[in-house]
Amino acid sequence: MPAEPRFVPLTTWEPRADDEMQSRGRAFADELARRRTVRQFSDRPIPDGVLEACLQAAVTAPSGANLQPWHFVVVRDPGLKHRIREAAEREEREFYASAPAEWLEALAPLGTDEVKPYLDVAPALIAVFAERHGVRPDGSRVTHYYVQESVGIAMGMLITALHHVGLAELTHTPSPMGFLNEILGRPSREKATLLLVVGFPAPDARVPDIVRKPLDQVISWR
Q1: How far is CA 210 from CA 47, 103, 107, 110, in A?
Q2: Residue 133's beta-bridge partner residues?
Q3: Is this structure's pTM higher than 0.90?
Q4: Which of 12, 147, 190, 215 lies 20 to 30 Å from 205 when distance is taken between CA atoms?
Q5: Number of folded domains that form the chain
Q6: Is position 84 within any domain?
């Protein structure tokens, strides 16, 4: 039989005055507006505890039936990072050689190519895996629901947390990413979803000259 639901008092919500809500919302939006994807990283180490705190924030994300279908692997070992770079560049070379012209045209303003030195240089890579299903202690299977949606929310919260503490990041998605399971020893029931490159921008880092769509193009009020 399904377990009986158990509820506890809500003690974490804080009421705020209207003007405080408005100022906090504006300040937070302004902070996130300064976030930029970076491709030139410094090798400066990340202080102890910072990544753990950001990951702690990420795993508070809501998930289907609260099954939390994610696993994060933090890679700091230079040898593992280099193996990941070699595998990612192999996939990227194939992609750039065979991608549709329209896709390559869309990427052109970003100045990307198959060479990924930041995978060696950045102090940390975070591989995000989506668990297709769970496993009980007796080995039986646990169905996971809304896996991609749940993991996507957690990834967004992780990126936000990293920016909030003062780190830069790059969302890297070589396709396919099965090599991450092999290199990092993750089971086949997990699907690699994202390789997040994390660290401090290089002193001479440059970013594409792009603009974000105005709100009236992406938001409707009814």
Answers
A1: 31, 17, 12, 8
A2: 143
A3: yes
A4: 215
A5: 1
A6: yes
According to DSSP, the residues that pair with 192 across neighbouring strands are: 129
Q: Write out pLDDT tens, residues 161-197.
A: 999 999 999 999 988 899 999 999 999 999 999 999 9
pLDDT, tens only, 116-159 = 999 999 999 999 999 999 999 999 999 999 999 999 999 999 99
Residue of 60, 53, 212, 67 lying closest to 134 (CA atoms):
67
In a domain, 14, yes or no: no
Q: What are the residues whose beta carbons fall under 8 Å from the beta carbon of 109, sequence distance 6 or more?
A: 208, 210
- How do residues 83-118 score in pLDDT, each as one tens digit? 999 999 999 999 888 888 998 899 888 888 899 999
Task: Write the CB contacts of 78 (distance below 8 Å, at least 6 apart in sequence).
Answer: 120
Write out the residue range of the structural domain in which residue 134 sits: 52-203
Q: Tokens 């937070």 — which residue?
A: 28
Helix or strand holding residue 52 (H, E): helix 50-58
Residue recorded with tokens 């996971």: 144
